[in-house]
Structure formats: structure tokens, C-alpha cells
Design a protein that fits this description.
Layout lengths: L1 H38 L3 H14 L5 H7 L5 H14 L5 H10 L4 H31 L7
Length: 144
Amino acid sequence: MRKKFVFLSFILLIFTNVFASYDLEQQLHVEHWMKTLEKHPFVLVRINAAKFLGELQDRIAVPSLVRALEDADNDVVFAAIQSLGLLGDPTAVKPLFEVSVKHEGTLLAKEAQRSIEKIQSYLDFKKKQRDANLDTKQPTTSEQ
């Protein structure tokens, strides 16, 4: 019995280390692309960095993507807008709205509005999910 416990403890320790190293790798990966988005001289690299940050689905990238909304190249701005929509962070709504006003009547403005709608849809979904969870936790009249 003791050997089984030691073996299971060892397996648990291995899995814990694997997941911890994955989290660290993920964080380093996100930080790399954030720096690339903010500082790389080539437009195509910045565009790809913005796209990758959206695909990585880590909200720590939101501030970098918001700063990218001020990039001199509209393709970088467009990629940042799309990624902010994917991340669903409510702090991006105001900067996205500002982009839609600044670039009114352009594709950037339309995409900014689309991303705002995605964020709002995500927030509505989360609220409904929380409400549903609260409803299932409340005792019914027959249980009282």
C-alpha cells in the first residue's frame, strides 16, 4: 500500500511540474509576442504578433494590443482590433470605440464595432452562465 501511495505521489508531482512549466512557457511566449508587437521594425512581423496574441487567448496581452491601436500602419491596427475582439476583455471596449470614431466610415471602424459586439456578446454569455449557475444552487420549494 505504501509503495502505491509513493508511486501515485510521484506521478502527481510530475504532472504538477509539467503543468507549471507549461504555464511558464505560455507566459514567456505571450510576453515575447507582446514585445515583438510593440518594438519590431517590420510591419508584417507586428501584424503576425498581434494575430498570435489573439490566438494565444491570454488577456495579459490586452494592454499591448490596445497600444497597437495607435500603430502607424493600419494593417497592424486591424490585426490588433481583431485580436481584442477574440480576447473578449471589457477594458478594450473604450479604445475600440475611440478607433471607430477616429476612423469613421473605414474598414477599421467597422472592424472595431464588430470587435465591440464580440466582447459584448461574450460578456452577455458569461452573465447568463453565472445566472444559470446561481439558479441551480438555489433550493427549490420542495427542498425547503
